Amino acid sequence: MNMYGKRKRKKGHWTNRIAVIGVTLVVFSLSLVVNVKCSTLRRKDMEYQEREAALQQQYDREVSRASELEEYQIYVQTKEYIEEVAKQKLGLVKPDEILLKPSPHK
């Protein structure tokens, strides 16, 4: 009976060690998986931050361009613009203006 008790203790002792090793391996595996996922998420976060910065720059350029177009739209409705186009494209002049053209050099 004494031997039977020793075997049971030894068997229980090894079972506990195997259980501890198993739990340790599971915890180690989980920490490894979490670390890999965390690294992947950090990399994606950096990519998204870079993309966000690029999109913000593009947005700022478009806002600036829209502002310039609004100013140009106002300018094309002015008398100054109409006179400028009439002079440049149509060759028109005001009645009191004299148009001087350079002579071709020989």
Q: How would you sum up this structure, described in words?
A:
By secondary structure, the protein is mainly alpha-helical. The protein has one domain (14-90). The protein is built from 2 helices and no strands. It has helices at 2-75, 79-90. The longest helix is centred in the middle third of the chain and has 74 residues, at 2-75. It starts with a helix and ends in a 16-residue tail after the last helix.
How would you name the oligomeric state of the polypeptide chains in this document? single chain
**How many angstroms does the end-to-end distance come to?**
132 Å
Amount of helix: over 70%
By helix and strand content, what is the structural category?
A: mainly alpha
Main sheet properties: none
Let me know the number of strands.
Answer: 0
From N to C, what is the helix and strand string? HH
Morphology: rod-shaped
- The count of domains is 1
Write down the Rg. 42 Å
Q: DSSP helix count? A: 2
Strand content: under 5%
Average predicted confidence as pLDDT: 86
Parts with pLDDT < 50 across at least 5 consecutive residues: none
Outline the fold blueprint.
Elements: H1 2-75, H2 79-90
In short:
This protein is mainly α. Helix content is about 80%, strand content about 0%.
